[in-house]
Amino acid sequence: MAQRLLPATYDAVRQPQAMQQMARQLVTTLDPKALAYQIIGPTGEIVMRSDNAPEAPFQVRRQAGFHDTPRYRVYAQPAAADGYFIEVAEPAMHRSEALWRAVGLTVGPLLLFLPLSWFLIRWAVFRSMSSLDRLRWEIGHRDGSNLSLIPDMGLPTELAPILAAVNRLLERLGRALAAERQFAANSAHELRTPIAAVLAQMQLLSAQLAGTQHAERAVRIVNQIKGLSSLAEKLLQLSRTGAGVGMQQDPVDILTVLQVLVDEFRRHEGVGDRLIVTAECQDEFIVQGELDILGITLRNLIENAIRYGASDEPIEIVVERGRQIRLLNGGAVISSETLEALKKPFVRGSSIGAGGGLGLAIVDSVMKQIGGSLTLISPVIGRGSGFEARLVFPEPT
After folding, report:
1. Distance from C-alpha of 232 to C-alpha of 62, rounded to nearest angstrom
2. Could you read off the pLDDT of 331-364 as tens digits, one per residue?
3. Do 149 and 170 touch, CB atoms closer than 8 A?
4. pLDDT (mean) for 305-330
5. Residue 66 has pLDDT above 90, yes or no
6. Residues 6+ positions from 99 with CB-CB distance below 8 Å
7. Separation between Cα atoms, residue 60 and residue 70, nearest integer Å
8. Is residue 394 left, alpha or beta, with left meaning phi > 0 and alpha meaning psi from -120 to 50?
9. Residues 254 and 301 sit within 8 Å (Cβ to Cβ)
C-alpha cells in the first residue's frame, strides 16, 4: 500500500487537494477496519491522510520499518519528496480478527478430521489385527488331543513365517506325543499277560499258604499285583483317550451305560446299597461320543468315589435335566489347589487307596474331547465335607 501511495507524494506540497483525490483513487479507505495511512511532512504535520486514519500523527519514530502502538501496527517508508514519510497502519482489531479467522480455518478442519481419522485408524488396525485373532484362536484350540496343522488363512506376509513356525512346532509335538502314547500303550499291553500270569500263580500260592505264617504276606503281594494290573489297564485307557478316540461322535444313551455299571459295582464287596442313583430324566440321556470311552469315563469316576470316599457314607449319582451328572461321596475336605491338580495324571488327593492317580485325568481328557467339562468341588455344596465330581455334557448335534 505504501508503494501505491508513492505517486501521491510527488507534488504533495504544491497540489495537496489533487494529491488527496489521487490517493483516494489509489487506495480505498472507507472501511474503518481497512488499512489507514498518513503522509507526514518534514515538520511532523499530516499532509495527507485517509478517512479512517486518526487526525493526530501516529506515535512512532520517523524511521523506515515496522512499529507497534496500542491500536495500530504501523509501517513507515520515506516518500518521494524529501523529508516526507508515508505511514500505513493496520488496526489492531483487524489483526485480531484476521488471526482468529486463520486459526478457525486451520483448527476447524482438524477438529472435524480428528474423529474421522480416529475411526479410520481403528478400522485399519482392527482389520489388520483380525488375522492375528484368527491365528490366536486356532493356536488356542490346539491341545494334546488336537495337534492338527493350522490351515492357510491368507495371513499378511509379515505373519506367514509365524504360521509356518507354529505348524512346524505342532508337527514335532505330534510326533513326540504319538511316540510317548505308543510307548505307554505298548508297555501296558505287553505287561498285561505276564502280570496276569504272575497274579494267577500268586493267587494259587496264597491259597496254598493259607493258615501259615506267610499267608498275610502272600495276600499283600496278591493285592499289589492287582494294583499293578489296574495301573497297566489305566495306562491303556489313558493312551486311548489321549489319541482322541473319544472324539468319535456316535449317539449313546448314557443312562443305559450308567445302569450297567451301577449293577456291576453293587455286586462288589463293600459297595452294595451305598451306590444310590437319582435320575431326573427317566427316558433317555443322549450323548455324542464313543460307547466304550463313555463307559470308561463313568467307571473311573465311580471307582474313584469307592476308592477314596468315606466307606461308611453313601455314594450318590444324580442325573440332572441340565445335561449334568453329579457324583457325590463323603470324605474330608480337599483344598482348591489339590482339586485342580487332581485332573493331572499320577496325582492323588490322598495317600489312602491303591489307585495310580489316572482316573480323573482320563475323565477330564474324554470330557474335553466331546466338548463337555469336568468340575471338581469340595466340600459338597450344602454340606461341610465330601467331594463332588460334576460332568456337563454338550447338546447332541
Report:
1. 112
2. 888 888 888 888 887 676 554 555 556 778 888 8
3. yes
4. 88
5. yes
6. none
7. 11
8. beta
9. no
One-letter amino acid at 157 equals T
Per residue in 221-240, pLDDT (tens digit) is 888 887 777 776 766 666 66
In the block, which residue shows the cell 490517493?
23
> Mind listing the pLDDT tens digit for each residue in 15-29?
666 666 665 665 555
Distance CA 46, CA 225 (A): 127
Nearest to 260 by CA among 292, 216, 289: 292
Q: Which of 228, 237, 235 is nearest to 199 (CA)?
A: 228
Mean pLDDT for all residues in the chain: 80
Instruction: List CB contacts of 40: < 8 A, sequence separation 6 or more.
Output: 46, 47, 57, 62, 84, 85, 87
Dist CA 249 CA 293 (whole Å): 11
Residues 128-176: tens digit of each pLDDT: 778 888 888 888 878 766 778 888 877 778 778 888 898 898 888 888 7
Nearest to 394 by CA among 299, 315, 287, 300: 287
Q: What element of type H or E holds 47?
A: strand 46-49
What confidence score (pLDDT) does residue 327 get? 92
Residue whose C-alpha is closest to residue 304's, from 328, 323, 285, 333? 328
Are 392 and 373 in contact by the 8 Å Cβ rule? The answer is yes
Cα gap 140→91, rounded to integer Å: 71
Q: What angle do helix axes 215-242 and 291-308 make, rounded to 10 degrees?
A: 140
Give the closest residue to 162 by CA, choosing from 173, 172, 152.
Answer: 152
Question: Cell 465335607 appears where?
Answer: 385
The pLDDT score that the predictor gives to residue 243 is 56
Tell me the residue type at 356: G
Residue 228: burial class (beta carbons within 10 Å; 0-12, 13-18, 19+): middle
Distance from C-alpha of 132 to C-alpha of 122, rounded to nearest angstrom: 15
Note the residue count of the chain.
397
Q: Which of 31, 92, 96, 29 is nearest to 39 (CA)?
A: 29
Residue 300 CA to residue 253 CA, distance in Å, equals 18
